[in-house]
Amino acid sequence: MSKLPIKNDLGFFEIRLESIGGLGAHLAGKMLAEAGVLGLGLNGAHFSSYGSEKKGTPVKSFVRFSEGELRISSPIERPHIIGVFHEALFKTVDVANGLLPDGVIIVNTSKSVDEIREELNLKSGTVAVVDALNIAVEEKTRVNTAMLGAIFRVAEFLNPEAIKNVIRATFEEKYPHLVDSNIKTFDRGYNEVVFKTFEADQNAVSEFVRQKSAVGYETQPIGGVITNPGNTILKDLSGSRQGFLPEYNADKCINCANCDIACPDLCFVWEEKEDKKGRPQMFLKGIDYQYCKGCLKCVDVCPTGALTTIRETDGYADEHRVPHKFKLASN
Ligand code: SF4
Ligand code: SF4
């Protein structure tokens, strides 16, 4: 009997993890492949593709299983399972691209299955949601093991005991204090994932579109020169946050600018006003959360407690964002 529930034309079962650097998708993919190879006796392959920066940019991690020969190392375009490690990716990456009509997509979110299905415009297949970030914050771990738990729940042929052995082997030598919390995180992802299957309507199945890079070796400017000035204005670093944000309380602020000096991404917004003696002075107005990656260095250096760490809740950053007023040179 086959150990794989379904296979593509080449005999492979394929999983693609869509993530942001720093969330641990590469390690999750590695552990997933190991669990399939060591636990089920499958042949497996795993590799990842990264952006130009290690943290904060999109990452894809690929896992391929086979009962026969496995000599392919191309990116996975038509996966049976997709794991999305951060909802913020929806803004920039077509995360569901290529998912097979009866495939499964698992999203780290606090939203419902129906909301995610609508946002991704999925016609069919199984949609699963798990609040992996909340689990990771509560267990003081990372979202990757919670996502693995959810993946193992929907991919029933994978053996949860095998991945627990891999988690133990991965952490016990260097970080033995993280073994139990990661096993618990895995169990919570496994138990807390919610999923629903939508029947494939043959008329409504989305066409597969091969994704092409906008800039490649044929189309990039000579020398790799960046031709649009001030393009970092468009950056959205919110995807790098892992559940926490700095909160600003103007009443406690003495405008010392320590936070501005410590912040690596120029998040602090200032305005010129008159001080009590009528002299012009710069006053801190707030934080532009579009550029805040949640490193919390600003909280560490604030001498008065005007900046504190809070759990990020849905919509908080949008509601309290104080936007920079940038002007591009060409405007
Ligand atoms: S947490 Fe603070 S220092 Fe870090 S990016 Fe956000 S505003 Fe800047
Ligand atoms: S470090 Fe604290 S007190 Fe100083 S400007 Fe920033 S928020 Fe205000």
TrEMBL record:
Coiled coil: none annotated. Residues 244-273, 282-312 form the 4Fe-4S ferredoxin-type domain. GO terms for molecular function: 4 iron, 4 sulfur cluster binding; metal ion binding; oxidoreductase activity, acting on the aldehyde or oxo group of donors, iron-sulfur protein as acceptor. Keywords: Iron, Iron-sulfur, Metal-binding, Oxidoreductase. Signal peptide: none annotated. It holds the Pfam family Fer4_7. PANTHER family: PYRUVATE SYNTHASE SUBUNIT PORC (PTHR43366:SF1). NCBIfam families: PorC_KorC (TIGR02175), PorD_KorD (TIGR02179). This is Ferredoxin. The lineage of its organism: Bacteria, Bacillati, Bacillota, Bacilli, Bacillales.
